[in-house]
Amino acid sequence: MEILRCENIRKTYGRGENKVAALGGIDLSVEKGEFVAIVGASGSGKSTLLHIIGGVDSPTEGKVVVENTDISTMNKTQAAIFRRRKVGLVYQFYNLIPTLTSRKNILMPLLLDKKKVNEEYFDKIVTTLGIADKLDFLPGQLSGGQQQRAAIARSLIYRPALLLADEPTGNLDRKNSREIIDMLKISNKNLNQTIVLITHDDKVALEADRIVTIEDGRIISDKKQ
């Protein structure tokens, strides 16, 4: 089942002589349960594409459909609500609220919507990610790897259609990077979570089921592993 469809996505910045084309017509389809890595050099447009897929930014032209909903025409408020409920975002900087415990950080998307917590699913996530014993800790009391696990748990708590990870290992050492990639793979396999990962690290990309390569704002390669 198709979970994501990008149709002729174009993104330009500036005007006239200062006009820059970040994306030059991206067509991409992702099936439910896929683990896709998007790779490319710095400035290739991969992060711009991820932000458009996540509704953080909007395309200049084209359409983005997530779970049969066209998000490219939404205003900022609509996009923010859709993103909170349907798209999990993980960055290399964890964006945890420093004054809240790990538990409250993880549950924040549900708390904002005043939704009841499914404790069984919550327990499954934190156990899968290996942080069940860190729930009462503040972010400052956790290692970088543990903070990233909490950020991943937060992104999964709403059972999103998509988990988007933008260089999630970029701020971690080799050991913690390996653990985070393993956690993403477990989420993909055990929770059937669809993942789109942005990375410049070829070793990380090779962990995915499929590698999409972007160059100068266009897809130049799309290969299954």
Which percent range describes the beta-strand content? 25-35%
Mean pLDDT: 90
Order of helices and strands: EEEHEEHEHHHEHEHEE
Oligomer: single chain
By helix and strand content, what is the structural category?
Answer: alpha/beta
Q: Could you give the count of β-strands?
A: 10
Any guess at the CATH architecture?
3-Layer(aba) Sandwich
Low-confidence stretches are none
The H-level CATH homologous superfamily, spelled out, is: P-loop containing nucleotide triphosphate hydrolases
**How many separate domains?**
1
The percent of residues in helical segments reads: 25-40%
What is the tally of helical segments? 7
Named CATH topology: Rossmann fold
| Ends apart, CA distance between termini | 19 Å
Describe this structure in words.
This protein has about 220 residues and is α/β, with parallel strands linked by helices. It has one domain: P-loop containing nucleotide triphosphate hydrolases (Rossmann fold, 3-Layer(aba) Sandwich), CATH 3.40.50.300. It is about 35% helix and about 30% strand. It has seven helices and ten strands. The strands form two sheets. The chain has a six-stranded mixed sheet, sandwiched between helices. Strand 4 and strand 5 form a beta hairpin. Helix 5 runs parallel beside helix 6. The longest helix has 17 residues. It is globular. The model has no long low-confidence stretch (mean pLDDT about 90).
